[in-house]
Write a structure and sequence with these properties.
This protein is mainly α. The chain has helices at 3-20, 22-47, 53-92, 97-137, 164-171. The protein is 73% helix and 0% strand. The relative contact order is 0.08.
Length: 182
C-alpha cells in the first residue's frame, strides 16, 4: 500500500471516528480552524505592502508563535479534559454512549475556553518578554532617547528618569497643553 492510499485510509478512519465522536470532531475542527486562521494572518502580513520590513521581522514570527501557542495549548488542555470527562461519564452512566459523547463535547468546549482565554495569553506575554530581551541584547531595538525631544513616545526608565524637564517636553505635544502652567 502506497503513501497516498495510507493517507486516504487514515483520513477515512479519522472522519468515521469524528462522525461517531462529536467531541473529537469539535476538537479537530477547532485546531484546524486555528491553523488556517494563523496561516491566513501570516500570509496577509507577508504580502501586505503597507507594512515595512522591520515591522514584518517582528510581526510574522509573532503570528506564527501565537498560532502555535493556540493550537498547542488547546491540545494540551483539551485532550486530558476530554479523557477525564469520558471516564467520569462512563462511571456515572455506564450504558449510555450518548452521555459519554456529550461529556467529551462539553470538555472540548471547556478546553477551548480555558486554553485560548487564559493559558495562551499568559504564554504569549511571557514569551514576548523573552523575545524582547533577546532583541535588546542583540541591539535590534533602538534605545530610548536620553531626553525627550517631543517627537517620539517618551520612555521614562532608569536611563531617562521622570524629570520635570522631560515631563514639560512631553506635555508640549498634547493638544491641550497650551494652558498648562507648572
Amino acid at each position: 500500500m502506497g503513501i497516498k492510499e495510507q493517507a486516504i485510509e487514515k483520513t477515512g478512519k479519522f472522519l468515521r471516528s469524528c462522525v461517531d465522536n462529536n467531541g473529537m470532531f469539535l476538537f479537530a475542527t477547532a485546531a484546524a480552524g486555528w491553523a488556517l486562521a494563523s496561516l491566513a494572518q501570516t500570509v496577509g502580513l507577508i504580502t501586505n505592502k503597507d507594512i515595512g520590513k522591520e515591522e514584518k521581522k517582528f510581526l510574522v514570527p509573532q503570528e506564527i508563535m501565537d498560532g502555535t501557542f493556540n493550537i498547542a495549548t488547546y491540545a494540551a488542555v483539551t485532550i486530558p479534559i476530554m479523557g477525564a470527562a469520558s471516564k467520569i461519564a462512563q462511571k456515572k452512566f455506564p450504558n449510555s454512549k450518548q452521555a459519554v459523547e456529550g461529556a467529551k463535547t462539553l470538555a472540548a468546549i471547556a478546553g477551548g475556553v480555558i486554553s485560548s482565554n487564559i493559558i495562551t495569553p499568559i504564554l504569549r506575554n511571557k514569551s514576548s518578554v523573552v523575545i524582547k530581551k533577546i532583541m535588546e541584547e542583540k541591539n535590534l531595538t533602538p534605545p530610548p532617547p536620553e531626553i525627550y525631544d517631543g517627537k517620539t513616545t517618551p520612555y521614562f526608565r532608569a536611563k531617562q528618569p521622570l524629570t520635570m524637564k522631560n515631563y514639560i517636553n512631553f506635555t508640549k505635544i498634547s493638544p491641550y497643553s497650551g494652558n498648562l502652567k507648572i
